[in-house]
Design brief:
single chain, 575 residues, two-stranded antiparallel sheet, 18 helices, proton channel activity, hydrogen ion transport
Length: 575
């Protein structure tokens, strides 16, 4: 009788003999006191504690490296006699060599160990992120080639560090881009602490490279702004032969110098973007170290990007892009000369004042549709999505901060002036557009894809999409080309009419916002900086103060537009 009661309660094997001799009033079995339970619980706790300790230690390592590098760069800015640019380059070169050693060890050693990569995060390293790494990395390599060529021409007044540093930078970019392209989805299961430290060291190095690039970009903008005065003084008498880094050097060939200078300044923003994109990918890899993904977390059907079910979004977005390119070209021609034209600033801000409300209205409508639809929220743990939300909110602070500074400067001076009123309207609309777009993207990223839940009313729609995919895979001959084009057009219009109005609206809005953010990324990236060139805020806050504000806000604003494109593409695909 006692043995049957013990078997019903499933006692521990080690405790059967002890249970048989126990009195009836103490027959309750406390599982939390069993050795087996305590042992398993302690193993789980030790695993979690080891993971937290590894993340803490690697984070402290990155923090100290960033503080050390920031102290060097800040000392170079404020006391360039004690700490020179060459000293900063030497420090960064040492860090890059250490990162290269770890990346090579990871590629040849860690990742090839048995059971090293048991899981891969399907959300990490999407194609647009890895494509951005390759694109911006290629431009950064070309930038360093220009720098090497320029320093080689002026070898008589240049140090060897100015040639060695970009050479190491080219090697670092190539190996890091290869590493991120092939291993950005890894959930490494071996050498956790060493991998975390290597990833954090690489993140810290990229952050310092970004910090240095931002300060040098500010110097180039300052050179361009002050160049107008030089051109006015020496117009038609002396060509521009000022060295890009030191004014004591003169080029033997003025044409080559101008090519290197213009190319260097044109490609420089891509270097800052490359550093930030690499940091985001490396951070996701750091979060995925030791992560175990269960089978139900892996999506069986991964949504693909198809221009399917959109008509008005591409048309409106393409129109905005074409008009933006025209405005940008006129701005570059008329605003970068020796005497900036007031009319070109009015034209530039007027374009923004028309475009930003359209983007805000689209984002608000998309958010309302998200609240009306019946898609479930995706509550699974996703480090990539968490990072996307943090980057969207953090990068938006750049444009929002500059807008508030502009609002204060305009209200305190003369808000009734035409140009000032346009800048004031632009600043207010930009704040509202950033907020509404962030809400729309973040809400869309937390929604399940539409096709994961097929309702009876959507069966015809899903069947139509499957037929379209099967049709796309067929090969057609040249003789059937006209007939096939007509079939494709009819099939496209037929599928468009069968989409639900919520899906159609979300796709139209997402595609429109993608194109708008692309043109708003292109304009400041390639040199349109009216916030510094209009002179209003610069005269109100002072040259140095406003330059520091712009230096902080512009790179974040450019990164925000690029990252918004990726988030909007995710919303479009899931819709």
């Amino acid at each position: 009788m006692w043995g049957n009661k013990a078997s019903r309660q499933k006692p521990c094997h080690h405790c059967k003999s002890r249970s048989a001799s126990a009195p009836p009033d103490t027959s309750t079995i406390h599982y939390e006191k069993f050795w087996l339970y305590r042992h398993c619980s302690s193993v789980q706790q030790r695993d979690q504690q080891a993971q937290k300790a590894g993340q803490l230690f690697s984070g402290l390592l990155a923090m100290n490296v960033v503080f050390l590098g920031s102290a060097f760069i800040s000392s170079m800015i404020f006391n360039h006699m004690a700490i020179t640019l060459a000293d900063v380059w030497i420090l960064l070169s040492i860090l890059k060599v250490l990162c290269l050693c770890w990346i090579i060890y990871y590629l040849l050693g860690t990742s090839r160990q048995p059971h090293a990569v048991l899981h891969r995060d399907s959300h990490a390293g999407p194609i647009w992120i890895r494509g951005s790494v390759l694109l911006f990395g290629s431009f950064s390599i070309l930038l360093n080639v220009f720098q090497i060529g320029y320093s080689t021409i002026l070898i008589q007044c240049k140090s060897s560090v100015e040639i060695v540093f970009p050479s190491i930078e080219i090697l670092f970019i190539c190996i890091q881009a290869f590493f991120l392209w092939h291993h950005s989805k890894d959930c490494i299961q071996v050498q956790h602490n060493f991998t975390r430290c290597g990833l954090m060291l690489t993140i810290a190095t990229n952050l310092l490279l970004w910090f240095l690039a931002v300060t040098n970009d500010a110097i180039h903008i300052e050179i361009e702004s002050q160049l107008r005065e030089v051109e006015q003084r020496f117009a038609g008498k002396a060509p521009f032969s000022t060295c890009l880094f030191t004014t004591s050097c003169t080029c033997p060939n003025t044409t080559i110098c101008k090519v290197f200078q213009k190319g260097y300044i044109l490609l420089y923003p891509f270097n800052t973007e490359y550093c930030l994109v690499c940091c985001s990918v490396l951070y996701v890899m750091w979060k995925n170290v030791g992560r175990r993904i269960s089978h139900h977390h892996v999506p069986h059907i991964k949504p693909k990007f198809k221009i399917h079910g959109v008509v008005f979004g591409p048309l409106l977005g393409t129109t905005a892009v074409i008009i933006g390119i025209c405005v940008f070209m006129m701005y570059q021609i008329r605003a970068t000369g020796s005497a900036p034209n007031r009319q070109v600033f009015i034209m530039y801000y007027s374009y923004y004042i028309v475009l930003l409300p359209l983007m805000s209205v689209g984002a608000v409508i998309g958010t309302i549709i998200h609240t009306l639809e019946k898609r479930e929220l995706d509550t699974l743990k996703n480090p990539t999505r968490s990072l996307d939300v943090i980057l969207l909110m953090g990068a938006a602070l750049g444009q929002i901060g500059m807008s508030y500074f502009s609002i204060v400067a305009i209200v305190a001076t003369d808000p009734r002036d035409l140009l000032n009123s346009l800048i004031l309207s632009y600043s207010v609309l930009l704040i509202f557009q950033n907020i509404t777009q962030n809400v729309f993207i973040i809400d869309g990223l937390h929604r399940q894809p539409f096709h994961t839940h097929i309702s009876p009313g959507n069966e015809e729609e899903v069947k139509e999409e499957q037929n379209q995919e099967a049709y796309d895979q067929r090969r057609v001959s040249m003789l059937e080309l006209g007939q096939e084009i007509r079939k494709v057009s009819l099939s496209y219009l037929h599928s468009y009419s069968h989409l639900s109005w919520k899906r159609r609206a979300l796709r139209e809005i997402s595609f429109f916002l993608v194109l708008c953010n692309i043109i708003l990324w292109v304009m400041p990236t390639f040199g349109a900086h009216p916030v510094f060139e209009n002179g209003l805020e610069k005269s109100f806050y002072g040259y140095s103060t406003w330059f520091a504000i712009v230096n902080f806000g512009l790179p974040l604003g450019v990164f925000y537009r690029m990252h918004s494109v990726g988030g909007l593409l995710e919303v479009y695909v899931t819709a």
